[in-house]
Amino acid sequence: KKPVIISTDPGIDDAVAIAIATSNETLDVKLIVPISGNVSLAKTTLNTQKLLTFFNKPIRVVPGSNKPLLRPVKDASGVHGKTGMDGYPFPEIKIPVDNKTLAATAMHQVISESTEPVTLVGIGPLTDIALFIHQYPDDLKKVGEIVLMGGSLGRGNFGVLSEFNFGTDPEAAKIVFTSGAQIRVAPMEVGRQAKIMPETSNKIKTLGSVGDMFYKLFSKYRGGSFNKGLNMYDALAIALVIKPELFEQVETHVEIETTGRYTAGASLMDLKGYLGMPNNARVATNVDTKQFEDWFVKEIAKTM
Ligand code: BDR
Ligand code: CA
Fold first, then answer.
1. CA angle at residue 127 from 186 to 95, to 5 degrees?
2. Does ligand 1 lie within 6 Å of residue 165's CB atom?
3. CA distance to 34, 66, 149, per residue, from 72 (Å)
4. Is 114 exposed, middle or buried (CB count within 10 Å of its CB: 0-12, 13-18, 19+)?
5. What is the ipTM of this complex?
6. Are residues 152 and 198 in contact, defined by beta-carbon separation less than 8 angstroms?
7. Ligand 1 pocket, 190 CB below 6 A?
């Protein structure tokens, strides 16, 4: 099993990503680091505990950052609802949180104890992964790869040219992309290619209590926009880890804009080599939408 650490801000698509990652037979999720992003750190932490309790997965939870490195907090509660996971009455929490350890230290501990390379999955702002890299640069030798959902090939969903996870903390994204780590990334556009359409949501609804839970969360996503299809962005990062063959991937240079007055957080995915810089990431440029959909439903069924 591949050891994995997940940095996440649940969030509805994060919730699905966590469910799939913690139930998949090829992954061993060693640590989850909730972070401020879609909603506050207090809420993403609580949501992580709710999910792990619901799925009965006693995984270590160490809360990470409550704000970006340099910039003010901007959340996405307009998309994910006030709590980040509205609409489902989760059972009483049974999974504790380790508030005594710094997230970067906890990541270092997992990596030090592991006999195999650890995969870091980032599906929220990159603040905690950046702090970890800053504090434990030598650990990157034992990080197999960093797999991210974030950035965009073109325009953004946070700013004109910036996607939420990179746009909320551009400096952190910059640290990650200049770290020399092996990086793979599923940008916004591949998430949009793989929208979950109403027929799929209806299939998921039939999957017992898990289906019921997700269907209820989905019905609050963007205030309930089933018909236009739901963006399951973060599940794409998990698919990149578990089933990379679903994607077309291109080795390229990704530059993170940090100084642009209007463009900070933009990810320049330099597919045509304009910048003349060495490749530092593999970017997923396309996903097989039909196969992704089948994979998605099957993986959710496994969480039951
Ligand atoms: C990303 O931003 C968040 O709102 C989602 O959870 C996802 O990680 C998409 O841009
Ligand atoms: Ca997220």
1. 90
2. yes
3. 18, 10, 21
4. middle
5. 0.99
6. no
7. no
